[in-house]
Write a structure and sequence with these properties.
The chain contains 26 helices and nine strands. By secondary structure, it is an alpha/beta fold. The strands form two sheets. Strands 4, 5, 6, 7, 8 and 9 form a six-stranded mixed sheet that branches. Strand 7 and strand 8 form a beta hairpin. Helix 15 packs antiparallel against helix 16, helix 17 packs antiparallel against helix 18 and helix 19 packs parallel to helix 21.
Length: about 650
């Protein structure tokens, strides 16, 4: 709750009961309120005389708070209290002036209402809930009227989005959005809206969309059931280049060797199956299970350098050892082509009380980490051994390490490599997704000469990536992050991330981006849980700085400032060139009043983005709740960032 006079000075009364009294009067602007009604709302657990005396005290406090702003703000007689309607403006009621010609006023509607006064009195809590529902119903009615009046696609989409911010389960608004996307032939956007609709209805207690909504998307929704191996065939046909990069990678999984003969044989075999199945979810990895050493190199690993490698690029092997109720599993990934160079290795020490959970956890963490290790290894290999005529996959992989390093020159070179990759293979969904992500970072870092053009290009590439391959989880989640962060459509982003996680639950990046989408929508607790899942899957991920950065904002908005600062420090150490970590870190330091540390972080940030200011921060923010944007901006302001 805030009360400001004409000069912007706060005249908010100190006690919560006086504030609640003011709330009752402010939300009843057209009539005076009976003193007995106010007493019954604020002192329902006290006797009549005690309640009347408490009300007199609250009225006196309110008059004292208003004194500096002049007389006549509060009108009081023996039976009634009222505010001077001509001298007050109540922001919670301004949205009722919204019309088809002034729809932006509807953006002023915001719930929950007066969270800081909840729990004051059972009767007041009930009144507050009733007021919230009254305002929500009024906003819905106005939003529906505005939507009905719209003719053009742009107006319909904006009106539907406004209505969904008021009522996320408003199925007619979802249908309007889906219809516009279908009219424009944007099936991926229509499907994302459908998935978001289905999720919203389920959360509201309605299990499935209506027949009208189902019929609207029935044709394109059937495409989602198409087995991923059939989509698209030309990508696999084009991936048969002879150098081992153009076709992605082929990885053989060997059975784990038991240190004690015969021990844990079933677990060793089950782990191979779990890992193979999980690896199969990564589109660019072809996995071969239960490979034996004789299949590849003979029994002696020393044969690797002198024997021609078979049609495998990498080999995953390991050992399993038990000691009482504990088990140790060591897994390593080797590059067959270089004579067995160990690319990645991990040791798991776990209890064996639940073997199924053990299999799930080890397989999930193994494949999540192998995916990133392979991407960067192949990327560095493609850059180091670049041929005169690199193929599309080589160009794409060669760009990825520079995207993660965030050194400006190398980053810009990465954009050129991705453009060249698309020119060679315009049907590659992954290249579209990576280039969309490249443009997103370009805007986020403040490096884009034309931020609007870069944003539009990112959106175009992201949409194309999803249309090209609805079974590519990485492309799906990268496209979702572009929609959420740059497009400021977090509902649609969340639906795409859910689809990506369903396709590949071990893709750490999808969990992280999904967490960010939840944070943009205001669900910061769920955001931190999902980002933590990304960190659990891949604790040493080369993208770890991004995972830590992703934790800062939800922690900040939960007012867990110390936790936000701790995550920020980790992120900055891992990658000091990522400006997003500095921005959220700076806001947290501002809220805690740590001026010296804030000055240091502010200096780093302005070195990376010299013109960055609070106006830029709020304009770029994808957060939908005004209070979240305000808290972020206030922290930056307290930390000394210019307006």
């Amino acid at each position: 709750m805030r009360v400001d006079d004409a000069s912007g000075r706060s005249i908010l009364p100190r006690s919560r009961k006086a504030r609640a009294l003011l709330a009752i009067l402010a939300l009843s602007p057209k009539r005076a309120v009976l003193r007995t009604q106010i007493t019954a709302l604020l002192w329902s657990l006290r006797g009549q005389e005690q309640g009347r005396a408490s009300l007199r005290q609250a009225v006196h406090e309110l008059q004292q708070a208003f004194h500096a702003a002049g007389s006549g703000l509060l009108r009081a007689d023996r039976n009634h209290l009222a505010l001077s309607e001509a001298r007050f403006s109540v922001d919670a009621l301004l949205f009722v002036g919204a019309t088809p010609s002034r729809p932006e006023l509807l953006d002023l509607f915001c719930l929950p209402l007066l969270e800081d006064l909840q729990g004051l009195d059972p009767a007041f809590d009930g009144w507050l809930a009733g007021q919230s529902e009254r305002l929500a119903q009024a906003a819905r009615t106005i939003g529906e009227a505005i939507l009905d009046e719209q003719q053009g696609s742009s107006g319909i989409l904006k009106a539907a989005e406004r209505l969904l911010r008021i009522d996320r389960s408003h199925e007619a608004a979802w249908r309007a959005m889906i219809s516009v996307h279908l009219q424009h032939g944007d099936h991926s956007a229509a499907l994302a809206a459908y998935e978001a609709c289905r999720s919203a209805l389920a959360q509201a207690g309605q299990l499935v969309p209506s027949g009208e909504t189902e019929a609207l998307v029935g044709g394109i929704r059937r495409r989602l059931a198409t087995p991923p191996d059939t989509l698209p065939q030309r990508l696999r046909d084009a991936s048969s280049r002879s150098n081992g990069i153009g076709r992605g990678v082929r990885l053989g999984v060997m059975p784990l060797r038991r240190v004690e003969p015969g021990a844990d044989n079933e677990l060793a075999l089950a782990l191979v199956e779990e890992i193979t199945t999980a690896l199969a979810q990564f589109r660019w990895i072809t996995c071969v299970a239960n490979v034996t050493s004789a299949d590849i190199i003979g029994e002696d690993r020393q044969d690797w350098p002198r024997l021609p490698p078979p049609d495998l690029d990498f080999l995953l092997d390991g050992t399993i050892q038990r000691n009482g109720g504990r088990i140790r599993i060591i897994v390593r990934l080797s590059d067959v082509r270089t004579g067995g160079t160990v690319v990645w290795a991990r040791r798991f020490d776990r209890g064996v009380s639940d073997l199924f959970a053990l299999q799930d956890d080890i397989a999930a963490e193994t494949v999540a980490q192998i995916d990133m290790a392979l991407l960067l290894w192949e990327g560095e290999r493609a850059r180091a051994g670049r041929r005169a005529d690199p193929d599309a996959m080589e160009l794409m992989l060669g760009a990825i390490p520079s995207i993660y390093r965030l050194e400006q020159k190398g980053f810009r070179d990465a954009g050129d490599l991705l453009e060249a990759s698309l020119a060679l293979d315009p049907g590659n969904a992954s290249a579209h997704a990576w280039l969309a992500y490249w443009h997103l970072i370009l805007v986020g870092q403040g490096w884009a000469p034309d931020a609007s053009a870069a944003t539009a290009r990112a959106a175009e590439l992201a949409e194309r990536a999803v249309r090209l391959d609805v079974g590519d989880a990485r492309a799906m989640t990268l496209a979702g992050h572009v929609r959420g962060f740059l497009g400021k459509r977090p509902e649609e982003a969340r639906a795409l991330h859910e689809r990506a996680i369903a396709l590949n639950p071990n893709l750490a990046l999808a969990w992280c981006f999904s967490g960010l989408a939840h944070s943009y929508l205001g669900d910061h607790a769920e955001a931190t849980r999902r980002i933590h899942q990304a960190q659990r899957l891949s604790p040493h991920d080369p993208h770890g700085f991004f995972f830590d950065t992703a934790q800062i904002m939800p922690k900040l908005l939960l007012r867990e400032y110390e936790a936000a600062i701790t995550a920020g420090r980790r992120a900055i150490v891992l990658n000091p060139g990522f400006s997003s970590s500095l921005k959220a870190q700076l806001a947290a330091l501002g809220h805690l009043g740590r001026e010296q540390e804030a000055a240091e972080v502010r200096g780093r940030l302005l070195t990376l983005e010299p013109d960055f200011c609070i106006r830029d921060a709020t304009a770029r923010s994808p957060m939908v709740r005004d209070q979240d944007v305000a808290l972020y901006a206030d922290g930056l302001r307290r930390a000394g960032l210019p307006e």
